[in-house]
Amino acid sequence: MSDFKTRLKEERKRLALSQEKFAQLGGVSKDTQLNYESGLRVPDADYLMAIQAAGVDTKYLLSGVSSEAQLSKQESELLTATRLLSEEGFASVMALVNSLAPIRRNKHYIRLTTDEQAQVEAMAAENGVSVSDMIRMLAMEQAKKLLDFPQTKRMQVSVGGDIGQQIHGDFHGTLQGPDMRKKITKKK
Fold first, then answer.
1. Residue 166 CB neighbours (<10 A)
2. Does residue 57 sit in helix, strand or coil?
C-alpha cells in the first residue's frame, strides 16, 4: 500500500484542503491524517466512506484507477469545475443542467388523507398486495382511462376547496370556471 499514501495526498491537494480540514472530513485528528499520508497507519472503512462523501475518489485511492477514467473529457472538466463550486454555485449549475436536460422523472408522490390511506390499505389487503402495489395499480388504471379518453371531447375538471388553496400540476387545454369577478360596492 505504499502508493496509497501518495494517492491520498494527491486527492487532498486536488480538493485544495489542508491536512487539518481533510482530517475533519474523515472524522479523524490532524495527527492521524498525517500518519495516513506518511504510510504509518492505514485508514478504516468509516474514514474512507466519510471522505468519499466529501468528493474523494476512493476507487482511485484503493486501486490507482480513477473513476473519472470512464468519463469523457467534457464530463471530467465539468466534474472538476463542479467540485470547486460553493453550495450556491452548485445549486445554480444544477438548476441550469436540469432546465436543459430532458426530463426523466420516474418517481411521483401523492398525498393521501387518513381516510384515503385507510381505503387504499383495505383494498390492498382485500387483493392480497402491498399498499405501494395497490397505489401503482390504481394509478395505472387511471392513466389508462385518461389515455383511452377520446381527444375530440372536452374534459371537465372541477376543483373544490377553500379560498387560498393552490392547484399544482399541468393542464393542457382551456380551463373554465365560475366568474370570480364581482362588482365591489363600497359601503357608505
1. 5
2. coil
What is the average pLDDT across 44-62?
A: 88
What amino acid is encoded at 173 in this protein?
A: G
- Give Rg (Cα) of the chain: 28
* pTM of the model as a whole: 0.39
C-alpha–C-alpha distance, residues 117 and 179, integer Å: 35
Provide the 10 A C-beta neighbour count for residue 134: 20
CA distance 175 to 156: 8
CA distance linking residue 60 with residue 62, whole number of Å:
6
Residues 82, 90 contacting (CB under 8 angstroms)? yes
SS3 144: helix
- Residue 90: alpha-carbon gap to chain centroid: 14
For the segment 134-166, what is each residue's pLDDT rounded down to a tens digit? 887 887 787 777 666 555 444 444 445 555 554
Cβ pair 29, 23 in contact under 8 A? yes
Q: Using alpha carbons, list the distances in angstroms from residue 26 to 20, 41, 100.
A: 10, 14, 35
C-alpha span between 107 and 70 (Å, rounded): 28
